[in-house]
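We modelled the chain as a single entity of 172 amino acids. Its sequence is:
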Amino acid sequence: MHRLSRGLALCVILPLLAACSGKAPTDTAYRAQGAQISSNALFDPARFADVWHVVGAYGAETSCGPLAETWVLTGPQSYQVTGTRCGPNGARAFVAPAQVTGPGRITRDGEVLWVMWVDADYRIAVIGTPDGRFGRILSRSPRPRPDLLTAAREVLDFNGYDPAGLRMVAGG
């Protein structure tokens, strides 16, 4: 096979193989790769359990309208999470187990989420991934207090997330 033909074949085959995996490519990072990130050392799994509205996020999921997640504690360090996610054809329901793996660190659906901040009354939370491909502001209310929302944005910025990339969820 000619060198150019092999290269062309790889350009066609590799994206098809990625599509067959069932997972969308996640090359986009919304935080500076060298920036420090921290998880909440005083995170309380029991207080985190309940309904959370996604009020801000990075990426395309913000275009699906109101999204929410319900975190039900199923053990001292585990949850059953149900909710809605934004997919290629709009909002879709999901169910996923989640496990607390460290202070403010949760593995859900194979993805390691860090709870970077929760206000003292657990009204608003900031979660994300160390690689920066995922970041969200969660709130108990679909319309959080402006001061809490400002604090959440500052936490994302402090942890290296790009403030310009944060989008508020439509309808929230």
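As a brief sanity check on the tokenised model: The beta strands are 50-57, 67-75, 78-87, 90-102, 105-108, 111-118, 124-128, 135-139, 167-168. The chain has a mean pLDDT of 85.
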